[in-house]
Amino acid sequence: MNHSYSISEVANVFNITTNKIRYYEKKGLLKPLRDSNNEYRKFNDEDIMTLQLILLYRSIGLSISDIKDIIENKTNKNYLNHFNDQWEIVNDEIQRLTIVRDSLENILDKLYMKDECGLDSDILDVIKRANKISDVKNNWKDKWNFNDWAKNYDKAIVEDRGEVKIYKNYNLILDKVYNLASKNNKKGLKFLEIGVGTGNLSSKFLKNNCDIVGIDQSREMLRIAKKKYPKLKVRLGEFLKIPYSDKSFDIIVSTYAFHHLNENEKVIAIEEMIRVLKNDGKIIIGDLMFKDVDDKRFIFKSLTKGQIEEVEDEYYSNIDFLKMEFRRFDKNLSYERIDMFNYIIKII
Ligand SMILES: C[S@@+](CC[C@H](N)C(=O)[O-])C[C@H]1O[C@@H](n2cnc3c(N)ncnc32)[C@H](O)[C@@H]1O
To answer: Are 47 and 89 found together in one domain?
Structure first.
């Protein structure tokens, strides 16, 4: 039997004000019937369920317009869109607050250590550095449009139409990264793949029952990965803003993704990877690189103009530079060269 409740009864049940309920009604989220005699609102069981949903969605920060859209369009695709949006908003906020907290920590250290002279400029320096990091984190853009690429990505690997044939050893590289990452491992380790794309590398871990999550900044790539490997856990996430807490993973892997970050961005991405990596964890990356500046100069001499343009459209790493950056965290980098541009680096 369908019950009918007055607005004060409903407000009492949920411990909220009647004004709040009227507000949700005004925004079109609730549509209670009216009593034909006195025009009072009559809430039925369905309205109660809807209000419960509204309050739950509000508690995780969804906006009124998002909630309205979710209530009106209950498809999985629409849910995913909204909850992914919210996942991004929450993770961005965590990143922002973490930077602010780190700055305050730093400033307070300085204040407790020193007397008054020179403090203003020290404090300003800390804040300026924090703002710079935020800018780098927030200004990365997908200028290659991976969402458009996602559907045909696997075909593009096979066709390898580019001028520099970066995919000619694709399968070999993925196998090697998998083998290096899973060598001598204990049971129950946690793996993270960054730039999971259509899931080709992660699927090898999945097949061998490893606990892996793949993150990518492209929703379409994630959609295809999930279609190919329904059991694969995927999440939206970027190198520069990894959506996980400190020391969450034993092993981080990545292939063909790191070269979408310029050098400033790589510095922050390395900090992020180290942040989410456990102390004795390892990182294995297969990607496009040069050994050092001289190696790049030498190789460029043998390339055509078109090939150089293609290489320079992305940011192939310089291994010497990466070595130096990882050393700041007491990590050692070793590498294997696979072909002219493809290397596998191991960081332990
Ligand atoms: C060339 S595809 C490689 C995909 C897959 N790793 C593979 O080996 O086939 C590059 C992938 O990295 C992702 N990617 C690029 N820059 C990224 C970033 N800053 N954070 C997260 N993912 C990124 C892209 O969206 C894309 O899915």
So the answer is: no
pLDDT per position as a tens digit, 82-122? 999 999 999 999 999 999 999 999 999 988 887 766 678 88
Point out the domain boundary residue: 119, 139, 159: 139
Which pLDDT score, from 0 to 100, does residue 114 have? 75
Element spanning 41, H or E: strand 41-42
- Take atom 24 of ligand 1 and give the residue whose Cα is closest: 195
CATH number, domain of 268, equals 3.40.50.150
Q: Is the CB of 238 under 6 A from ligand 1?
A: yes
Ligand 1 contact, 202 CB (< 6 A)? no
Cα–Cα dist 244/246, whole Å? 7
Q: How far is the CA of 336 from the centre of ligand 1 (A)?
A: 21
**147 CA to middle of ligand 1, Å?**
10
CB 149 within 8 A of CB 156: yes
Q: Does residue 84 form part of some domain?
A: yes
Six token digits for residue 209 = 């029952």
Domain count for the chain, please give it: 3
Task: From residue 144, give the alpha-carbon distance in Å to each of 57, 148, 150, 218, 329.
Answer: 34, 9, 11, 11, 31
Same structural domain for residues 126 and 234?
A: no
Looking at residue 15, its pLDDT comes to 97
Q: Ligand 1 centre from 306 Cα, in Å?
A: 23
